[in-house]
């Protein structure tokens, strides 16, 4: 059987790339002959010029729950900031898998760690220790505190996704509230335009009718305020509130930053009423702003009691984390919360590698520098097309380009020309490229974008003329 071979001896002599090949051969030998033949057929076909992605997509669509609208292309491989589809068309990726692939695609360091750890140990259940869950937790806490962010960060709960990290945060805050002596301290506050996930708790904190309405009723006890409305805080966050969740920079909502004044006032009110302040840094954290965490620039008076992270933490390997202060951690006891996969040695070893690199001073400095290149060029475009671009927002490499019209056609035209770009909020183009993107790639992508925007601006002028007539 497959694992009778000594993996240590066999792998020790192989470079990482060959180890991946070895693993594939090994795993295949453990499957049935029919499965092997089918998999080989697909893999061979996907790289063959005869492979018709549109045909495969059409045939297989009926097997997939239709939760996403996808264009008729299929991505097969990536390298750094580029992706290739099955027709071998090359795309520059300004999306990074929605702020996930910060180290780029097929990064050698990440693939090497995956291959090595996969040969050793992928999973043991959470009833036992493994070498990486604790080590990742230690790294996150020590690095966060040394960076000047979340001064009271103390312990970490590792899970598998952003939604799950927020679920844990919501449960932890409820537990803090329930042990406060006030039996009604179960209420939650979140903010319009935010996005915290799709599971019932995180969805209840996401006041977007499109996402909530089909699945109501929501979890009871959630109420919503407006980001940056300082005057409303006192009434919104009352004695019965156990938790407040906020993104320091709203991602899906259109790249809107919470102001320092707002977050300082929010934290003060949370302290006054004994509520837990949660920062959702799932999209804006982990170096994306050019700081380790988006809230790193805030005074400690605005630091959170809980912070959540996921997305970039595994560079594509699913992993999330809920980081808490001692005040929160002491309320959570054995058996309160858990997950089968969360903290498995494969995901946590990868996350350890990724976190080490994303938190390096050099990486963060580079993100700030590249963010400035984007901002300068985009501001020039805004000056050129004032009727189409109304504002450039964001920090580092989380950037919003506010348009005056619906951006669907712009995204499609960019894709046709080999640039992947996202939308967010209302008529916002969202740029969240790999943090390792080069200056040349930034300019290449912005050239494509400018060509498409010039076209859209011209169309807009023609439409206005037509209306004027
Ligand atoms: C700020 C924020 N929170 C939570 C989530 C949910 O994360 P996941 O999709 O990994 O569950 C997202 C996902 O886009 C997000 O951007």
Model description:
The protein is an alpha/beta fold and 469 residues long. It folds into 2 domains: 113-359, Type I PLP-dependent aspartate aminotransferase-like (Major domain) (Aspartate Aminotransferase, domain 2), CATH 3.40.640; 363-468, Aspartate Aminotransferase, domain 1, CATH 3.90.1150.10. The chain contains 17 helices and 17 strands. It has a 7-stranded mixed sheet, with helices on both faces. The protein has a 4-stranded mixed sheet with strand order 1-2-3-15. A 4-stranded antiparallel sheet has the order 13-14-17-16, covered by helices on one side. β13 and β14 form a beta hairpin. α15 (361-384) packs parallel to α17 (439-468). It is globular. The protein starts with 6 loop residues before the first helix and ends with a helix. The relative contact order is 0.13. Pyridoxal-5'-phosphate binds next to α8. It is an enzyme of class 2 (transferase). This is acetylornithine transaminase. Its main location: mitochondrion. One of its GO terms (cellular component) is mitochondrial matrix. It is found in: Mitochondrion.
Helix residue percentage: 40-55%
Instruction: Summarize the main sheet.
Output: 7 strands, mixed
DSSP summary: helix tally: 17
Rounded mean pLDDT score: 91
How far apart are the first and last residues' alpha carbons, in Å?
A: 77 Å
Indicate the low-confidence ranges by residue numbers.
1-30
Fold blueprint:
Elements (H helix, E strand, L loop, with lengths): L6 H6 L3 H14 L3 H15 L5 H8 L14 E5 L2 E4 L4 E4 L2 H4 L8 H13 L12 H14 L6 E7 L2 H17 L8 E5 L8 H5 L4 H4 L9 E4 L7 H4 L4 E6 L2 E2 L5 E2 L2 H14 L2 E5 L25 E4 L10 E6 H4 L15 H14 L2 H24 L4 E7 L2 E6 L4 H9 L2 E2 L1 E3 L3 E4 L7 H30 L1
Parallel strand pairs: 3-15, 5-6, 5-7, 7-10, 10-11
Antiparallel strand pairs: 1-2, 2-3, 4-12, 8-9, 11-12, 13-14, 14-17, 16-17
The structure holds pyridoxal-5'-phosphate (PLP).
The site of pyridoxal-5'-phosphate (PLP) has 15 residues, from helix 8.
Family: Belongs to the class-III pyridoxal-phosphate-dependent aminotransferase family.
Subcellular location: Mitochondrion
Protein name: acetylornithine transaminase
């Amino acid at each position: 059987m497959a694992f009778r071979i000594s993996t240590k001896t066999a792998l020790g002599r192989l470079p990482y790339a060959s180890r991946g090949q070895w693993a594939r051969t090994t795993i295949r030998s453990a499957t049935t002959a029919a499965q092997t033949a089918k998999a080989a057929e697909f893999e061979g076909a996907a790289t063959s010029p005869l492979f018709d992605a549109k045909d495969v997509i059409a045939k297989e669509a009926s097997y997939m729950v239709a939760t996403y609208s996808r264009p008729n292309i299929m991505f097969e491989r990536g390298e750094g900031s580029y992706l290739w589809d099955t027709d071998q068309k090359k795309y520059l990726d300004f999306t990074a898998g929605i702020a996930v692939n910060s180290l780029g695609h097929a990064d050698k360091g990440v693939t090497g760690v995956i291959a090595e750890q996969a040969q050793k140990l992928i999973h043991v259940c959470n009833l036992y220790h493994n070498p990486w869950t604790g080590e990742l937790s230690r790294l996150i806490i020590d690095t966060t505190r040394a960076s000047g962010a979340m001064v009271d960060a103390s312990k970490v709960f590792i899970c598998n996704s952003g939604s799950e990290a927020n679920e844990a945060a919501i449960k932890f805050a409820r537990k803090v509230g329930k042990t406060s002596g006030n039996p009604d301290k179960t209420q939650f506050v979140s903010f319009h335009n935010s996005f915290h996930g799709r599971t019932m708790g995180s969805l209840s904190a996401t006041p977007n009718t499109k996402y909530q309405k089909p699945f109501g009723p929501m979890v009871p006890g959630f109420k919503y305020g407006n980001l940056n409305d300082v005057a409303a805080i006192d009434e919104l966050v009352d004695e019965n509130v156990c938790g407040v969740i906020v993104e320091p920079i709203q991602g899906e909502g259109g790249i809107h930053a919470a102001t320092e004044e707002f977050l300082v006032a929010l934290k003060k009110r949370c302290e006054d009423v004994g509520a837990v302040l949660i920062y959702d840094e799932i999209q804006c954290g982990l170096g994306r702003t050019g700081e380790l965490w988006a809230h790193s620039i805030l005074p400690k008076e605005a630091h959170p009691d809980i912070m959540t992270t996921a997305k970039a933490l595994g560079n594509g390997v699913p992993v999330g984390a809920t980081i808490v202060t001692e005040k929160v951690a002491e309320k959570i006891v054995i058996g309160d919360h858990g997950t089968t996969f969360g903290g498995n040695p494969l995901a946590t070893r990868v996350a350890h590698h990724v976190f080490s690199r994303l938190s390096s001073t050099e990486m963060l400095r580079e993100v700030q520098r590249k963010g400035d290149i984007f901002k300068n060029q985009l501001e020039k475009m805004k000056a050129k097309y004032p009727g189409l671009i109304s504002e450039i927002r964001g920090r580092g490499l989380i950037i919003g380009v506010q348009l005056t019209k619906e951006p669907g056609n712009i995204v499609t035209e960019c894709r046709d020309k080999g640039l992947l770009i996202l939308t967010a909020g209302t008529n916002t183009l969202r740029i969240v490229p790999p943090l390792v993107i080069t200056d040349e790639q930034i300019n290449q992508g912005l050239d494509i974008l400018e060509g498409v925007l010039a076209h859209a601006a011209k169309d807009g002028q023609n439409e206005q003329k037509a209306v004027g007539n």
